[in-house]
Amino acid sequence: MSRTKRHLIPALLFLLPVLFFTSCISLGHRQPVSRNLSDPAIKNQNQLVKFFMRQNPEADKKQVKRLAKYYIEESLAEGINSDCAFVQMCLETGFLRFGNLVTPEMHNYCGLGAIDEEHRGESFETEQLGVRAHIQHLHAYATTEEHQLVNELIDTRYKWVQPRGKAPTVFELAGTWAADREYGNKLDALLSRLEQF
Length: 197
What we know:
The chain is mainly alpha-helical and about 200 residues long.
């Protein structure tokens, strides 16, 4: 073997992993978003907003920014995955298009208490309180911890979630949070789309 080839082989062995890693990044491979409701989130406000606006470009971008901020802050306070919570809001509201029992002025972003025409769902005074109620309800589904919530309890349905911790991931929300047996798969699909941002 020539002297040049002997020096070339170690260089190639070093460069191949570097080139592979670089190509993975350039091809859009992203860190996976956890489907566990109590895992740390990885997406920031700007990433959540970009994801949302791609799905509904007609939405009020200022409102979407506020909601993304509230979801991150409220989730962090209660130990909930804001990536999962934000995506659930997108599914429940049709990316803020609404159109079912819940209307925009109710600030109810997760269909809380929405059953039928006589029970259209809970209403909250502000966007932030609506997000807080959503996060608190997810807390009841995701955790078995009986400790006090960080923020004052405003989710009137929190106590009715039994057993506590029955949905540690988005998949167990199917048939529990929502009657739709595909509910968890729908959330999973949205999270897969969020991973691209």
